[in-house]
């Protein structure tokens, strides 16, 4: 049975609530679009994460969500992509059942101004880029790459998560005409204009790497402030302004991946990651 708390938000559920074959244990976190719960799959005693979306889906919206969930569930298995187990509805409220990552997010691991050493940052970057390249090869764009959506299944093993707003490029652009999605500090300039693309994910991952190396994203501010910043075409601060000891070679790599125009960035997110590996570790491309 679904037990909703005394709240207008139907995504706010009590521990012990049953969603299909899952029993909620506790809330793990929440964002603007959903709440995430730790749950137990009743018959096989498996721990899972369940994302309950903050919306009551109409018939048309429910069908679109079903199509998107089906698309995501058919993603090729990848060691750095969270596995999606099931999609369903509790009445009109949609939920997604996913692999549970017990070690939290990269935000909790190295947020709050903490800098990673170049070798460790590169280690996690390559894992995230490999996952995103697989997503792109399948014709999808994530649209919300940020440390909160990069989870740790175990120490040193990253998982790309939160496909709640990922969609085929066609659906992403249709949705962008109605509402902008993403998190402002990690959004590419074209996302503020409602034109998301695979290059937008590259931009976001470059912001993530910048933050891992420098302890802060290149831009911090409200949605409106960052939108205006991009419109004025002001150059981003160089990483070595924050951490002078960084290898100089990383600056032109990040500058290209953070270019205002998508066509000026690397041809793929994996090409960007390999360029970072060469710049940070001095490795030759293979």
UniProtKB/TrEMBL annotation:
Q: Which GO terms describe its molecular function?
A: ATP binding; protein serine/threonine kinase activity
Specify one Pfam family: Pkinase
Enzyme type, top EC level: transferase
Which residues bind ATP per the record?
A: 51
Q: Which UniProt keywords apply?
A: ATP-binding, Kinase, Nucleotide-binding, Transferase
Give the EC number(s) listed in the UniProt record: 2.7.11.1
Fetch the PROSITE patterns from UniProt: PROTEIN_KINASE_ATP, PROTEIN_KINASE_DOM, PROTEIN_KINASE_ST
Q: Does the keyword Transferase apply?
A: yes
Secretion signal: which residues?
Answer: none
Q: InterPro entries of this UniProt entry?
A: Kinase-like_dom_sf (IPR011009), Prot_kinase_dom (IPR000719), Protein_kinase_ATP_BS (IPR017441), Ser/Thr_kinase_AS (IPR008271)
Tell me where on the tree of life, at the top rank, the source sits.
Bacteria
Where would I find the Protein kinase domain in this sequence?
22-281
Name used for this protein in its record: non-specific serine/threonine protein kinase
Q: Which organism is it from?
A: Thermogemmatispora tikiterensis
């Amino acid at each position: 049975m679904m037990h909703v708390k005394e709240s207008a938000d139907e995504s706010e559920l009590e521990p012990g609530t049953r969603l299909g074959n899952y029993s909620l244990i506790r809330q793990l976190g929440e964002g603007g679009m959903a709440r995430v719960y730790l749950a137990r799959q009743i018959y096989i005693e498996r721990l899972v994460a369940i994302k309950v979306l903050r919306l009551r889906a109409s018939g048309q919206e429910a069908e679109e969500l079903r199509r998107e969930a089906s698309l995501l569930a058919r993603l090729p298995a990848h060691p750095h992509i969270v596995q999606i187990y099931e999609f369903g509805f509790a009445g009109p409220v949609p939920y997604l059942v996913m692999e549970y990552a017990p070690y939290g997010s990269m935000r909790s691991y190295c947020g709050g101004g903490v800098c990673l050493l170049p070798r460790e940052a590169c280690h996690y970057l390559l894992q995230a880029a490999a996952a995103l390249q697989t997503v792109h090869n399948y014709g999808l764009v994530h649209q919300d790459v940020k440390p909160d959506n990069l989870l740790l299944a175990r120490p040193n093993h990253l998982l790309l998560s939160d496909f709640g707003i990922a969609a085929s490029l066609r659906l992403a652009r249709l949705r962008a005409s109605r509402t902008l999605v993403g998190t402002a500090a990690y959004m590419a300039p074209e996302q503020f204009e409602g034109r998301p693309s695979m290059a937008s994910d590259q931009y976001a991952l470059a912001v993530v790497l910048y933050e891992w190396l420098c302890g802060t994203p290149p831009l911090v501010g409200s949605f409106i402030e960052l939108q205006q910043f991009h419109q004025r075409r002001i150059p981003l601060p160089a990483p070595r302004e924050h951490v002078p000891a960084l290898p100089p070679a990383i600056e032109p790599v990040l500058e290209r991946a953070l270019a205002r125009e998508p066509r000026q960035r690397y041809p793929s997110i994996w090409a960007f990651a390999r360029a970072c590996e060469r710049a940070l570790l001095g490795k030759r491309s293979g």
